[in-house]
């Protein structure tokens, strides 16, 4: 579904189409141009003469033969722009996958959190209801009863917020899928095997990302396009050689009229009023700006790789701890249930709350690790890993 129509993909696709159209436009400047000129007319050579026909038909053809590198530079720049837009389109596809994955996980986590807050609220209500009965017997003071009621009301607010978040996360997922009118209800929790992957070496991953990252490749191609644009503007001062041919038919014959004509034109710029200098300065400024953007992108990529490697390391440890805590809570629940049945202890509700919270924490760590790995794969423009994972599931 990440490759189905969506405004983000449509925008990236439109920019790619625009770049391809720009290449065709650049190519057209050196292509053959022709047109037919039809001039039906009648003239009176002198006041005393009769009106005579003087219609004509002329066929023109012309072509730029050589412009000393300007058109070649423009075409190279257009090709570089296409490469940049293709990389940007791949980057948009990767971002769509990450966005859908994150919003999908948010819905599951919102449901788990709602279960936690519901258990907490239920325990608080049971305590308040018990206190209310004891208050009626004079065993609980007014202050203690108000404390129990206040705790219940605060937990009710928290549970209501969790309930609203269930709707909000589903709306965000529907928007990510470009289906704003179809809020998903029940989601199937994916089976993830991210914990078994080995954390990559930071420098090795950075070098791989530096070579393959779609956003960085797009920035490099944009820089190359800007550099060739500068070369094209400098070529404004060079001559242009073109050829023209004409075939004509005239209703009236004159000695000065030619039926066939072929011409070679060499146009040499002498002075353009500073227009060429301004164009070169503007292109040079654009190049400096794009080079700065590229340098900044490389610096940001270095930090992003480091952050993601550390995030994967942290979440891998967190997942191990969360699974251990979940096992402990599971055993603790069994013990609390046994003691409750023997009427030894009455903290079964608290034990249910704690295991539900442990399940939420384990899911949060698992999904955070899965997202970290997905972002690491996206750094190198890898769509295959996500696709293979989806097929396995």
Write the layout of secondary structure elements.
Layout: H1 7-28, E1 33-39, E2 42-43, E3 52-53, E4 56-66, H2 70-136, H3 142-176, H4 202-212, H5 214-234, E5 240-250, E6 260-267, H6 275-341, H7 348-379, H8 384-392
Helix pairs in contact: 1-2, 2-3, 2-5, 2-7, 4-6, 5-6, 6-7
Give the proportion of residues in helices: 55-70%
Q: What is the number of helices?
A: 8
Q: How far apart are the termini?
A: 15 Å
Mean pLDDT: 87
Q: Enumerate the spans where pLDDT stays under 50 for 5 or more consecutive residues.
A: 342-346, 387-393
Strand line-up of the largest beta sheet: 1-4-5-6
Radius of gyration: 37 Å
Structural class: alpha+beta
Helix and strand pattern: HEEEEHHHHEEHHH
Secondary structure tally: strands: 6
Give the percentage of residues in beta strands: 5-15%
Please give the largest β-sheet: 4 strands, antiparallel
What would you call the shape?
elongated
Q: What features would you describe in this structure?
A:
This protein is of the alpha+beta class. Helix content is 67%, strand content 10%. The protein has helices spanning 7-28, 70-136, 142-176, 202-212, 214-234, 275-341, 348-379, 384-392; strands spanning 33-39, 42-43, 52-53, 56-66, 240-250, 260-267. A 4-stranded antiparallel beta sheet has the order 1-4-5-6, with no helix packed on it. Strands 2-3 form a two-stranded antiparallel sheet. β2 (42-43) and β3 form a beta hairpin.
Gist of the model:
By secondary structure, this protein is of the alpha+beta class. The chain is built from eight helices and six strands. The strands form two sheets. It has a four-stranded antiparallel β-sheet, with no helix packed on it. Strands 2-3 form a two-stranded antiparallel ribbon.
